[in-house]
Design a protein that fits this description.
Strand order of the largest sheet: 6-2-1-10-20-19
Organism: Novosphingobium rhizovicinum
Number of helices: 11
InterPro entries: CobZ (IPR012831), FAD-dep_OxRdtase_2_FAD-bd (IPR003953), FAD-oxidoreductase_2 (IPR050315), FAD/NAD-bd_sf (IPR036188), Succ_DH/fumarate_Rdtase_cat_sf (IPR027477)
Number of strands: 20
Protein name: FAD-dependent tricarballylate dehydrogenase TcuA
Helix content: 25-40%
Keywords: FAD, Flavoprotein, Oxidoreductase
Shape: elongated
CATH superfamily of the largest domain: FAD/NAD(P)-binding domain
CATH class of the largest domain: Alpha Beta
Radius of gyration: 23 Å
Largest sheet: 6 strands, mixed
Cofactor: FAD
CATH architecture of the largest domain: 3-Layer(bba) Sandwich
Length: 464
């Protein structure tokens, strides 16, 4: 492909956003090349590990239990971001997500009802049949049938630009460097969560203790080039989708099976055996993504979820079995925590639990009274042996520092002008919608909606 100048749309990246852009552009009549920096086995970035996407819909379906309107979606987004979102782009995403459920199925993706214990998302989120990798494979099959060309192990390391006009890329492959020219470019190469040195620019040395849920290939190479070439940034280096994941997970690519969804069913303590936040603040889909940042703020970036036998079957388990013991003291010893401190914390919690009817499907009001940090929902005594615990560390899914875009997914330059033929979609521009916080499935929504917008816009420009 070296020196190719008849190419309409160059898509950089290989996940959901990139494939939606490539398919949309190809269906609009454009010639399309996808450059994926990872090997074929690791193609797709975080899409490989996802399970669902959040879209508005008017009624129950074969896989959704009820309606989820635009106003409710907006309220949920506003709540988790605390208002740090571009309202125009966020509402555009929400509105267009309504049609995405049909469009994505037209590309071969299939859905299924949510599984038990999956964050109570049966009404709001559509789950992919076979998970994220099956969804990704379906998009690749459709792209290939349409004539989209795909190259793997092809990392874009530089851009030839004149102001806001893209001309060509420098691509690093196993056999050396080459140039790929195109009439338009769609940047959909994800964030920089696998670049620990870049994370340290915002987090400092504690980033060494972070675990990366996705592949080691999301290093932000293209993002760095774009920002260096004058594309306006959005967000900051410390904002990201970070959850509490099993501390025994590998440094990279542990994926969704290392995430822990049991916080609401017990208590969370730090290395000193002390609680540090309300485990029952809100439903888990709206609050699970705050725990990564909170664990990052604890000593040595480690914490422990403690619960008892009555909760063991209420959530999806991790890849790793929980640590168990017949008493809280013995459990603390296995965790290498001070037994007296953990026993005191659990006893104080149990004594503070107020009478109530436990129901994890609603805000049940089962709470504590008299603690410095109260648990405001789903509080019940931890007293049924055996006792269990999971050690957790911050698990970084994707970063929010990215490129500023408009409603057409065109990149904006630092001088205030709009790029002429440069578009962005997915995690590389997610900071426009997610200034902070996260709600389950929104990353896939951003990728698919803006991927389709970017692909159609790039094709229209290339063929004008």
């Amino acid at each position: 492909m070296s020196g190719r100048s008849d190419l309409d749309v160059l898509v950089v990246g290989g996940g959901n956003a990139a494939l939606c852009a490539a398919i949309a552009a190809c269906r609009a009549g454009a010639s399309v090349l996808v450059l994926e920096g990872a090997p074929r086995f690791y193609r797709g970035g975080n899409t490989r590990h996802t399970r669902n996407m959040r879209c508005t819909h008017d009624s129950a379906t074969a896989w959704l239990t009820g309606p989820y309107g635009e106003d409710e979606f907006w309220a949920d987004l506003l709540q988790v971001t605390k208002g740090r979102t571009d309202e125009e782009l966020a509402r555009l995403m929400i509105r267009k997500s309504r049609d995405m459920l049909d469009w994505i199925q037209e590309q071969g993706v299939r859905f299924q009802p949510s599984l038990g214990g999956t964050l109570s998302l049966g009404r709001t989120n559509s789950f992919f049949l076979g998970g994220g990798r099956a969804m990704l494979n379906a998009l690749y099959r459709t792209a290939h049938k349409l004539g989209v060309a795909v190259e793997y192990d092809a990392e874009v390391i530089d851009l030839d630009m004149a102001g806001g006009r893209f001309r060509s890329t420098t691509v690093r492959r196993a056999d050396g460097h080459s140039t790929v020219a195109a009439r338009t470019i769609v940047a959909a190469a994800g964030g920089f969560e696998a670049n620990i040195e870049w994370l340290k620019e915002g987090w400092g040395e504690i980033a060494e203790n972070f675990l990366i849920r996705g592949t080691p290939y999301n290093r932000g190479s293209l993002l760095r080039v774009l920002l260096d070439k004058g594309v306006e940034p959005i967000g900051d280096v410390t904002q990201c989708h970070a959850v509490a994941i099993d501390a025994r997970a590998p440094k990279f690519d542990g994926g969704i099976i290392t995430r822990l969804d049991c916080v609401v069913f017990g208590i969370v303590v730090n290395k000193h055996g002390q609680r540090f936040y309300d485990e029952g603040e809100d439903f888990w889909p709206k609050r699970y993504a705050i725990w990564g940042r909170m664990v990052a703020a604890q000593p040595d970036q480690i914490a422990y979820i403690i619960f008892d036998a009555s909760s063991l079957s209420l959530f999806m388990p991790s890849l790793y079995p929980p640590i168990s013991a017949p008493t809280i003291g013995e459990l603390a010893n296995k965790l290498e925590l001070d037994a007296a401190s953990v026993e005191a914390t659990v006893n104080a919690f149990n004594n503070a639990v107020q009478p109530g009817r436990f129901d994890h499907t609603i805000h049940d009001g089962c709470r504590t009274k008299g603690l410095e940090i109260e648990k405001t929902n789903w509080a019940r005594r931890i007293e049924t042996a055996p006792y269990y615990a999971y050690p957790v560390r911050p698990g970084i899914t994707f970063t929010y520092l990215g490129t500023r875009v408009d409603r057409h997914a065109r990149m904006k330059m630092v001088d205030g002008t709009m790029a002429e033929n440069m578009f962005a979609a997915g995690e590389i521009m997610a900071g426009n919608v997610l200034g902070q916080g996260y709600a389950a499935g929104i990353g896939m929504t951003i990728g698919s909606v803006f991927g389709k917008i970017a692909g159609e816009g790039a094709a229209a420009h290339a063929r004008a």
